[in-house]
Amino acid sequence: MTAEARRRAPLALIWAQTTAGVIGGGGDIPWHIPGEQRRFRELTTGGTVIMGRKTWDSLPERVRPMPGRDNIVVTRSADFVAPGATVVHSVEAALALADPAKQAWCMGGGELYAQTIAFADRLEVTEIDAEVAGDAFAPAIGADWRQASADPESGWHESPEGLKYRFLAYAR
After folding, report:
1. DSSP one-letter string for the chain
2. What is the C-alpha separation between 153 and 7, in angstroms, rounded?
3. What's the angle, vertex CA 94, arms to CA 88 and CA 96, rounded to 5?
């Protein structure tokens, strides 16, 4: 392990996707699953969340910045301001700013997942058994990842709206 890797915060990616890999559409998440939101909050609170500008913009103002977490927004826009968050212009800058004593979480969107998956050692994926149209997709999980757990192992959870979902964890 290089000295640089030792200084960098551990990075995990967290997302919810349909079985076809859709994570969003039209700048929004096409489902509302309280159990998935609760898991996101439990896992990321106390850490650093790294997100793209579109993800920041999609958050309701009441949770911008995301409470109980260091917030870093990655954007190409030189004049972008995100009150309560740190704005950077590259993935490398975001990773360098993340506190190495805390877990860093990439929370999207699709472009940022594709740029950060090579740096990650953990994936937390909520798989939703639904067919929805979308224009944002989860990154491919390559052969170098192994499924570390599935919850529940013998079935799926069900949201109040009747959507079936499960939690999958991957490591490498």
Report:
1. --HHHHHSPPEEEEEEEETT-EEEBTTB-S---HHHHHHHHHHHTTSEEEEEHHHHHHS-GGGSSPTTSEEEEE-S-TT---TTSEEESSHHHHHHHS-TTS-EEE---HHHHHHHGGG-SEEEEEEEE-----SEEPPP--TT-EEEEEESTTS-EE-TTS-EEEEEEEE-
2. 35
3. 120
Distance (Å, whole) CA 9 – CA 146 = 21
The pTM (predicted TM-score) of the whole model is: 0.91
Distances (CA, A) of 67 to 51, 74, 88, 119: 14, 18, 19, 25
pLDDT of 2 strictly over 60: no
pLDDT digits (tens, 9 = 90+) for 13-60: 999 999 999 999 988 888 989 999 999 999 999 999 999 999 999 999
What is the model's pLDDT at position 54? 94
Tokens 């004593």 sit on residue:
101
Per DSSP, what are the bridge partners of residue 127? 17, 166
